[in-house]
Amino acid sequence: MPESTEKMDAEQVNDIEQPRRIQLALFISRNSVASHAAVKNIRRALEKHALRFDLEIVDVSSDPQRLLRERILVTPMLIAQPSGRRIVGELNDAILLEFFLQSFLEEPRG
Amino acid sequence: MPVSSGILGLDAILYGGFRQGRTMLVEGGPGTGKTIMGMHFLAAHSEPGLMLSFEESPEKLLANAQTLRIPFASMAGTSIHFIDGRPPTDVISIGNFDLQGLIVSLEAIVKQRGIKNVMIDAIDALFSLSEDRSRVRAETLRLLDWLDNSGLTVLLTMKSRNDNGTFMDEFDFAEFSFDGVLLLKSTLHGKLVQRTARVLKRRGSPFVAGEHPYVIDGQGIRLLTSPLRTSIAESDAQERCSTGVTRLDRMLRGGFLRGSTTLFSGLPGSSKTTFGAAFLNAGCEAGERGLFIGFDEPAEQMMRNVLSVGIDLRRHGSLLRLESFAAGAAIADDFFLMIEDLVAHHRPERIVVDPISALLKSGGVEIAENVIERLVNFFKTTGLTAVFTTVSDVGANVAESTPSRVSTVADTWVHLSFAVQGGERNRTLTVVKARGTGHSTQTREVVLDHDGITLADVYAADGAVLFGTARLEREQSLRAVRFEETRVIEGELRQIDEEHSTLELRVQQLADQMARLGLRRKELSEHAAAVARAATADHAAIQSHRRADPDNGIDAGEHREDGR
């Protein structure tokens, strides 16, 4: 399941056999076509990376305080942690999206 | 009920302020004070306000606000709240998006804090979100619609307009019904910048059309509020106040009308400043407060100069305030506000601006005339009795070189000039006009001495008094021509004098040289005589010794050369 809620302890990341999982949060708005497309697109892209990413889907109207804190002006917005890197839009370019995801896997982390 | 913009002059041209629950669009280039306008707006209300900037962080906004005398910074966190709307710089965009996140954030904070007024700064920065401009535009319109339905009073700023004053397509929100569109503009005049605000359009509400100059200083944005249409508060229209010159008081049937404006025009050195000083001096002696605004020279220097003609301004203490400015250092609009501030602070009954023509250096004729007109109206509405001086430039085209409209807006016009007669150059005074006063139209001679200014009758060579009323205008130009002629003659005379003294010097030098030569000649002749005498004596001695024949000596040739 790509939408895993499994959480990792930060200390375990150093283990080479079990690389750290990347936390993704997708901020969406419920009545938006672009948001629905983004959910579909990110789920599809994560199918082959199920072991490396956690995905959380956040409806913007459910937590306005978090929006203000994280400066989410535009939806849908995908934020990767801990890098904080952001990607905006319906994510309808599979190649670009894959490129974005790969960038986390190739980077040595520590 | 209009919602105050927080700027006095802007409220005036918007008939009270923004329309409640509507969005006002402010457009302007960089540095026109759009953000400051928003600070004024939010800080003017005790109801909670929200600052949403797409360009600057809350920290930077607060730091900027602290340099201004607007309570914006101190209200931050209590009644002014922030949304940091800067788009992330490293954001990648893939496909369509919407501004739902922003709208939800806005909804939340508006509800939570009870926000009534909103400032949205630099909405154009949203366009950095995506290269898909039509998408951004559609979303921006959605945001505007939400704002319109929210009941919030919104000030929205945008730097968008091309130089030619047309919208770029993406920024054309013509289909959206703003409360109005306010255009801020800064124009370069020489090296000085003038800023103007203009209401482009307004739906269903009145506004004062045209460009309104404004200034950004420590107090923030200030529009020149003084109305261009005159509204004189004529309390006691017939009260006179002394000009400080007894004879001039008599010529004007008791002095200047209180609350009127008088213009003293004249060439440099025609004692315009002295008349201004005499006017202030007379006021202070009667216990009235005076304000002197000098553009020509430092106030201390002016005080020293008038002291030499017996006007001691130092003794008036705090009754009299003297300020001097460098006219070329700021736009005339700035000086208007400075003078307005000084008047508000010092509350004078009499004011002198010396010379008002210096304002020509503060952005050109058009701006200077506008400001002078505003000053005259400002002084009239506050009941100030004012004296302007202006330098008339003989030789140049008078209409171009002096703010010609000053003479029309002034109630009284006194022209000072010089009359050259019998090798003497005398100052003269003519009252060109005096509105509402049966004044003497005769020219007087101005006499300056240790006792101050006195006026004496002046007669032309044929014994007739100069200048009839009907000929005044023609005389003005005639006088200009005459002075030009005089100047040329004086120049020639000076040249002849110089040549004469040069020649005199040379004659003196030649005489000295001749005298020296004569002296030298005399010395040499005496010396030669002595040598000859000695030679003769020697010759005689040798002759007698050798018993030789007379004139047979071998040395005789030498003696001839030297001695004869």
Number of helices of chain B: 15
- Shape type of chain B: elongated
CATH-derived architecture of chain A: 3-Layer(aba) Sandwich
Helix content of chain A: 25-40%
CATH class of chain A: Alpha Beta
Q: Please tell me the total number of domains of chain A.
A: 1
Structural class of chain A: alpha+beta
Query: Quaternary arrangement of the chains shown?
Result: heterodimer
Q: Which value, in Å, is the CA radius of gyration of chain B?
A: 40 Å
- The total tally of domains of chain B equals 3
Basic shape of chain A:
globular
Distance between the termini of chain A: 26 Å
CATH C-level label of the largest domain in chain B:
Alpha Beta
Q: What strand line-up does the widest sheet of chain A have?
A: 2-1-3-4
Classified in CATH, the superfamily of chain A is Glutaredoxin
Which ranges of chain B are low-confidence, i.e. pLDDT below 50, for 5 or more consecutive residues? 395-401, 460-473, 560-564
- What is the number of beta strands of chain A? 4
Q: What amount of the residues of chain A lies in strands?
A: 15-25%
What does this structure look like?
The complex is a heterodimer of chains A (110) and B (564). Chain A is an alpha+beta fold. Chain A has a single domain (21-106), classed as Glutaredoxin, CATH 3.40.30.10. Chain A contains 3 helices and 4 strands, in the order E-H-E-H-E-E-H. A 4-stranded mixed beta sheet of chain A has the order 2-1-3-4, covered by helices on one side. In chain A, a hairpin with a 4-residue loop joins strand 3 and strand 4 (86-88). In chain A, helix 1 packs across helix 3 (94-106). The longest helix of chain A has 14 residues, at 33-46. Mean pLDDT of chain A is 80; it is low at 1-13. With 564 residues, chain B is an alpha/beta fold. Chain B has 3 domains: 2-223, Rossmann fold (3-Layer(aba) Sandwich), CATH 3.40.50.300; 240-467, P-loop containing nucleotide triphosphate hydrolases (Rossmann fold); 471-564. Chain B is built from 15 helices and 23 strands. In chain B, strand 16 (290-294), helix 9 and strand 17 (320-324) form a beta-alpha-beta unit. In chain B, helix 10 packs parallel to helix 11 (365-382) and helix 14 (472-546) runs antiparallel to helix 15. The longest helix of chain B has 75 residues, at 472-546. Chain B starts with a strand and ends with a helix. Residues 395-401, 460-473 and 560-564 of chain B have low confidence and may be disordered. The A-B interface holds A 27, 29, 32-35, 37-38, 60-61, 64-65, 67-68, 71-77, 85-93, 96-97, 100 and B 83-88, 90-102, 104-105, 107-109, 129-130.
